[in-house]
Amino acid sequence: MKLLIGNRNYSTWSLRPWLVLKHFEIPFDDEVLQLSGDGWRNVLAQRSPTGKVPVLIDGDLVVPETIAIIEYLADRFPDKAIWPTDLNQRAVARAASAEMHSSFMGLRSHAPMNLRASHPGKVGADTVAKDLHRLEVLWGDLLAKSGGPFLFGQFTAVDAMFAPAATRIRTYALPVSDLLAEYVEAIYALPAFQEWLALALHEPWIVDDDEIDVIQGRVKPGTLA
Asked: Is 56:17 a contact under the CB 8 Å cutoff?
């Protein structure tokens, strides 16, 4: 299998299925498609059915869209427990993942993922207060029930879905409870995430539109996640 991804420093949607593949030791190759530079949109249009990343290629099968890729992997490798094995927990995990996919617009618009950066104080608390409160309730409830360190005890797909939110909390030093701070640390300590992070830190490319200094004062709903 091959996973087409965007720049590791910025591409939240690429990070999610990559973590699933790497953590659950599913053999795959990856290829970075640039999200900036001359003709980058044309390259994406040629390689991706949606003109976006990520895209999973498995033989003749081409699967775009992060959640669809994760669901395919869960079906393809049922022994990996990519989702929680309990039926009820699995439903809750999928609901939380869908919420991440469709919500948290304050974080997504005002606090872009930037793994190389440290920007404490650059994101106004009022712009992300609603989303942080929701994370306190959602993550807090799941962690209290599971005992951590991940949302359902062991790392599953829902943790991959929320990993970019964890990076935003660290990058912008956003105010969260000790419980949530511990969860952020658990994400960062995950060997698969550490591998992605190391590669991101050595990337030479800069995507101006995903840098906080460029997007401040500009809301781009749906373009970041």
From this structure: yes
